[in-house]
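Students often ask why we bother predicting the structure of a whole assembly rather than each chain alone. The short answer is interfaces. A chain on its own may look different once its partners are present, and contacts between molecules only exist in the joint model. In this exercise we take two input lines together and write out one structure for the complete complex. Read the inputs first and try to guess which parts will touch.
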Amino acid sequence: MATQLTPKDFATATPSWWCPGCGDFGVLAALKQACAELELQPKDVAFISGIGCSGKISGYLHSYAFHGVHGRALPTATAVKLANRDLTVIVAGGDGDGYAIGAGHFLHAVRRNPNMTYIIMDNQTYGLTKGQSSPTSMLGYLSGTSPSGNPDAPLNGLAVALAAGGTFLARAFSSEPKAMVEMIVEAVRHPGFAIVEVMSPCVTFNKVNTYKWFKENVYHLSDIEGYDATNRARAFEVLMQHGKIPLGVFYRETRPTFDELTLKDSAPIATLDIESVDLALAEIQEAYV
Amino acid sequence: MIVNDIEVLFGGQAGDGSLTTGDFIATAFKRMGLDVYTFKDFPSRIRGGHTNYVIRAGERPHYGLADYVDAMIAFDLECVEKHVDEMRPGGFVIFDSTSEQLTDAVRRPDVRYYEVPLAKIAKEDLGLELVRNTISLGVIAQLIGMDPAIVRGLVTKQYERKGDKVVSQNIGAIEAGENYVKEHFKDAPSGYGLQARPDVDRLIMMGNDAIGYGALAAGCRFMAGYPITPATDILEWMAKHAPKYGGVVIQAEDELAAINMIIGAAYAGARAMTATSGPGQALMTEGVGLAGVTETPIVIVECARAGPSTGMPTKTEQSNLNHLIFSGHGEIPRVVLAPGSVEESFYLTVSAFNLAEKYQVPVFIISEQALCQSKETTPKLDMAAVTVDRGKLHRNGALTFGEYKRYEFTEDGVSPRAIPGTEGGMHLVPGSEHNDMGVITEDARNRVKIMDKRMHKLVSMRPDLPKAIVHGDRSAGLVFIGYGSNRGPITETQDRLAAAGIASRFLQLRTLWPFPEDEVRDFLKFAHHIFVVENNMTGQVERLVRYVTGPLPNMHRVLKYSGRPFRPIEIIEAVLKVVPHDNGAVPERSSVKSVEMERSNSAEMERSSLLDRAK
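Now the answer. The structure tokens for the assembled complex follow.
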């Protein structure tokens, strides 16, 4: 039996490329903690990431990691899960990766409901290209590409996901590690596509949505008396409200996962013996005689 | 009378059953022991618009289209108007005269016309409009002497799922067609006849089905794709068959998703494939680069159609080769294979998967509408000849973490591959440049070293790449170069030139990238006249040849980019323009004698080499 691991066992030797104080450090720490609490083994974790500051996280978690192209982490991860359903598949990416270039894939991953976890590290800017506006930047956000203020309304990703059939929707804040670990643990255990959006401030380029700003502008679903995370309409209502940013698990439901629907009871595809060619395949030719 | 050599064209409006009827007669010809090639010429719409289906049948394997259409079954006047000029003098037209009449403009003195009120017979005599097409089968069967037992047997098989009543209705329709000919055209023979030959251990299969089948046999258990003509058949074929063997097939939201899905599945250890056509391939370009730099083995089938942009979605072309070879930013090792027949489509697909895994590269299979959606008679496919070589895939036992290097520098450039779930093999696979451990780095020395490692695979894979096939007279100075569906028209051209005393050689390329420089150089050593035959405007293969040879004064491009495949006469005329010869000496049909020679010699040789390649 493998021994239970600690968060340190999920660290890699690779030094981080993030700026000091970046919100992504908190996400990484929470992820390692969650992996340990979930009693996962690094060999059984497939960690898929996109491109951007957030995408670099796959280099820092001791696991099987795949750092693909911009916006395509979800299709890659969906296929990893289908090819080997025994793996714990975790995806990470930023607001640009998930809500801009990868928005199409995001919607379809939500529809499919594969049994995996998606962590969106939202810093409301394009950090790695030096601070341009992102799909979640606030209206009027000033940046190199929006010198007169960002004209695009910010995308409400979790509300979109709820409309598309999301089965687990949560939002955390990078400097509230305990709650974030709990949400990630619950997300990984959720049988279906679990989304955890993490407010992860960019200390270098986003001078608006700072740690201080978040502390003043967030509240917790636990503060709402009798909030019921199985009530879809209520979740919508809360997600669509203007004003302060709610944190917590908005919604959860169980419906058949993509892997269950497509794989039925079959063994993990990656473990199939394909080297001994099945001569019974010849029978297919009977339809062509 | 012309025996066992006929090209039949069924035509009407899309959705009215020409394709089904054409499939039916193609199978009937096959059961009568003939060699068959079919070509679908349909519009990019579901209902309405002229569509036609051409069936070529005879006694020579590997056909393309003939010079002319021998027999036309026209369900409307538009079909006759569009195709009467393609008729061979002495050919015949069966025309549904129920609601339209033949006009003087479409009447040719050298063509026979059989006017049969097909729809009227169906409705009034048989009380079932649906059987109109089946009546037309009875008409042509009677006119050219098809075996009535085979025709009835096929009707029974086709409709037995729908019950006895439907079977007897359709057999009644066949009889009605036959009787109409007996009663009305007793004194007007068609000039064509058929004689049954043995039909042993043969299939009639579409190119796309052979690719799906080859993939399944090769162990492909994961396919993702986005529907696109003319590649969708492969996705549907796999969706039908792969789950029975533990596989899964996903209809992706777009081609970007499809290629990243197969990369994910291959990374996780499955054999994975996608199939697309030009516009989808354009979207997949990004993913091909990712597969190249991460050394993830994937197979991409490109069923080429006429571009650019949306182009002509249902028409054939060979204009996407440059894209497969050169597309993408940066430089990666890749392979492009080109089958020239349905049989090759099966075996080369097996080779594609073995090459992909052995060298950890993206491998393209390039087919084209005139091959992938065409049916051909082909010898039964041999599962015992299929072998699966997974290369340096680590399968058993634990690795030692810290020692295992995913991108280890090796002599052949191929590194050991550990899949997720393997104890001790944890590593990062990045699309960013990385060192041998998979750690992202922009170090200058490492960059050169690892680029060299990846690209060296193009050299080390050379012995495993499918060889070109040389058809014809090994000592001839007149040579052809081509690939894909042009195998049929070029080899037929060769037969007919040979009958007129003109010997020729044909290099049928099957690996297009890495370009087989040595094979091409050797082949051209004693060439006097070089004809590069391809379906595009700019001579994409000719340019590749020129990279190897430099400019050659005796190299000629034979190009066609109308969206339709070559008819042999077009190649023959191109040759005779350069090689002066009495045009009349080239026979209209390939001689049966040379057919027999090909059967006994080159076809057998080639078959055994195909089997070797699949290993």
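Check your guess against this: Chain A has nine helices and eight strands.
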